[in-house]
């Protein structure tokens, strides 16, 4: 029997990152419709809000949406639904996103950090881990940490120092995890190893070259994997998680990346957690944002 969209209740999950906005219409925990659009990160609060509202209205046309969950890159006052600041969305400051959505769409809305949303999504997907960490490797590096079934809100592992006085990070500090493991970091490795800047080079192209046997591309991923192994060992030694799940575009390097990462993790920890590439991929943040209220969040 065909479902009549107007007579059913659906939810809308949104994952706002530094590069893309991912939207998914969800029934139960199944995404039935999805869209990816560009993040207009040069827009200030009001203009960005209008851009988002127009995109939502167009996307949900014909669906009865009962609630909206939004994960967004940056430090979020989740009780008020306010994005305080975001290194990867620098024009957005003290953005009352929850109120803006409520006022314009009259739909119950939750707002939280995007990496926290991904962690909740993975938690509900696996359902067997009390201690779980997600690391989202994309434009930036987001961390979602759940210990004893409780979320540590707004953890910013991506802005802890990996290399003192190292690469300049988007937050203004030097040597952050994000400056090495975000997309700008792998491109810096490429520039150093190719000994020149290659126009149009992306992490996806580097991975494709590596799979084709390009020795320099393989060396780039090996170097990236080394720093990722060091970062994961720091997380493992502090939190002792059962599993660390890698998400985001750079995690698409998959088993090739893990080949270089796991030995470094083993060398620098007494106990090695499982390290997996996410099965949910980009859906983790969408599912997690919608489960925020049942996880105890949402104000």
UniProtKB/TrEMBL annotation:
Belongs to the ROK (NagC/XylR) family. InterPro entries: ATPase_NBD (IPR043129), ROK (IPR000600). It comes from candidate division WOR-3 bacterium. Pfam families: ROK (PF00480). This is ROK family protein.
């Amino acid at each position: 029997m065909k479902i009549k969209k107007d007579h059913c209740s659906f939810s809308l999950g949104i994952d706002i990152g530094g590069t893309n906005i991912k939207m998914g219409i969800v029934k139960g925990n199944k995404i039935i419709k999805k869209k990816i659009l560009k993040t207009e990160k040069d827009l200030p609060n009001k203009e960005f809000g209008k851009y988002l509202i127009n995109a939502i209205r167009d996307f949900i046309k014909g669906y009865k949406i009962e609630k909206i969950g939004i994960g967004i890159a940056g430090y979020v006052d989740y009780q008020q639904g306010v994005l305080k600041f975001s290194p990867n969305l620098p024009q957005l400051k003290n953005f009352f996103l929850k109120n803006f959505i409520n006022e314009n769409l009259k739909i119950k809305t939750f707002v939280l950090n995007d990496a926290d949303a991904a962690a909740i999504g993975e938690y509900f997907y696996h359902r067997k881990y009390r201690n779980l960490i997600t690391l989202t490797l994309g434009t930036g590096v987001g961390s979602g940490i759940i210990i004893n079934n409780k979320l540590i809100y707004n953890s910013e592992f991506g802005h802890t120092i990996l290399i003192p006085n190292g690469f300049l990070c988007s937050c203004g500090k030097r040597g952050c995890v994000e400056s090495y493991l975000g997309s700008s970091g792998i491109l810096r490795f490429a520039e150093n190893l190719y000994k020149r800047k290659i126009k149009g080079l992306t992490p996806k192209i580097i991975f494709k070259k590596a799979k084709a046997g390009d020795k320099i591309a393989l060396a780039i991923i090996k170097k990236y994997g080394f720093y990722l192994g060091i970062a994961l060992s720091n997380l493992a030694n502090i939190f002792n998680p059962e599993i660390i799940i890698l998400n985001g575009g750079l995690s698409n390097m998959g088993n090739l990346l893990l080949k270089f990462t796991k030995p470094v993790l083993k060398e620098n920890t007494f106990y090695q957690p499982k390290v997996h590439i996410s099965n949910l991929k980009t859906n983790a943040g969408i599912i997690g944002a919608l489960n925020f209220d049942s996880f105890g969040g949402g104000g």
